[in-house]
Amino acid sequence: MRLLSILALPTLAFAATLHLSIPPSTLLPNPATLPPSTHATLSTLGQSHTALLQRNNAFTFNNVSAGSYLLDINCRDYHFAPLRVDVGAEEKVEVWQTFRGNEWDNKGEKVGEGVGSCRAEGRVVGGKAFYEARSGFSPMSLLQNPMILLAVVGFGLMVGMPYLLDSMDPEMKKEFEEHQKKSPLGGAIGGGAAGGNPLQNFDMAAWMAGTPAKSSSAENEEAARSRKRN
């Protein structure tokens, strides 16, 4: 019996106590509203400690042996920042911020320190949302559609162009009309007054064969010659 008590002395000598409290914050104004299933885990390779949430909104870990631990707070409604807890051989306890996905040696700010016993605070980083709210209909959302914007701009030009032409200077209006007649689009649209639509005389077969297209005068001469032969 004495031998067992003597062997247990080193274990008790190097066991530390960690107190982790949850203070009020903007994301969690009243920590007392946390669900009773909230608990904290202190885990390392081959060891794991669990502490339940107490009435004073805190967790207590007793008899923590020397080692480096990851402290997580598991809650149904909130996310908490993970912490790193280092317990030295001389009962020195240090609590650091840690970051998931980074190397274990990448430590953040120290949030707690003590000998034999240490106190630290858990930080809320956000709430958990299990359901996504359905967005309602908004008429302004139609303006985010490119096709709607193109239709609105085209309608505005169609309605406003006559008023714009009426308000133009006569010389500028005449110059605009001449420029419109010289443009390919103006010639295709209003080519009837200038001798027919040029798109009607376009020879698609000749263009695909790579041969130069025949002019209208050459076609008329060939038609006249065929008539004389007949």
Gross geometry: elongated
What class would the helix/strand composition place it in?
A: alpha+beta
Radius of gyration: 42 Å
What is the average of the pLDDT values? 78
Query: Termini separation (Å)?
Result: 137 Å
- The topology string of helices and strands comes to HEEEEEEEEEEEHHHHH
Which spans have pLDDT < 50 for at least 5 consecutive residues? 1-13
- Widest sheet: strand order? 3-2-5-7-8-9
Largest sheet: 6 strands, antiparallel
Q: In total, how many beta strands?
A: 11
Tell me the fraction of residues in β-strands, as a range: 25-35%
Helix content: 25-40%
Summed up, the helix count is 6
Describe the structure.
This protein has helices at residues 2-13, 146-166, 170-182, 184-189, 204-209, 216-229, and strands spanning 16-21, 39-44, 47-52, 58-64, 67-74, 78-80, 83-87, 92-97, 110-115, 117-121, 124-127. With 230 residues, it is α+β, with helices and mostly antiparallel strands. The radius of gyration is 42 Å and the shape is elongated.
Give me a quick take on this structure.
This protein is 31% helix and 27% strand.
From the structure above, extract its key features:
disordered N terminus; 27% strand; 6-stranded antiparallel beta sheet; 230 residues; elongated; alpha+beta
